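[audit] Reproducing an earlier prediction to check determinism. Same input, same settings, fresh worker. If the tokens differ from the archived copy the diff job will pick it up downstream; this log only records the rerun itself.
[audit] input (137 residues):
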Amino acid sequence: MVRGLTRPHWGHGPPSLVTRAKAVSPSKRREMICHLAVDPSGSMRGRKDNIKLSLTRQCKLLKISRSSIYYTPVGVNAETLALMHEIDRVFTKYPFFGSRQIAAYLPQSGFSSGRHRVRRLMNLMGLQVIYKGPNTR
């Protein structure tokens, strides 16, 4: 072996497609997938003119599940939004109420919801209860 020249070690070369895919956020990886689209004429055609990899192979290379491509997130409906506003109003008035007390307080204002749903929505809004902690030095 010539002095100064070393043989390449595994993993020390230029980044491969897989390591580049890991560095990219999942939403960007989903955008990289080339879907098949239906033309107005009715024929199937890719977003790019020449698709050389199947959808399954593209997903495997980008390390994302195939089902995540078809998923469209569902927004918050008006009823849940109104409940969230009411939880926020009650929590602002009583910052020491937890999910159980807020769930018990909601029927007074015309809302009814279980404490698990109230807890989930409180976590979603980032509300944390004020409570006495341990007396540590």
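[audit] rerun output stored. Observation attached for the diff report: Residues 1 and 7 are 9 Å apart (CA to CA).
[audit] end
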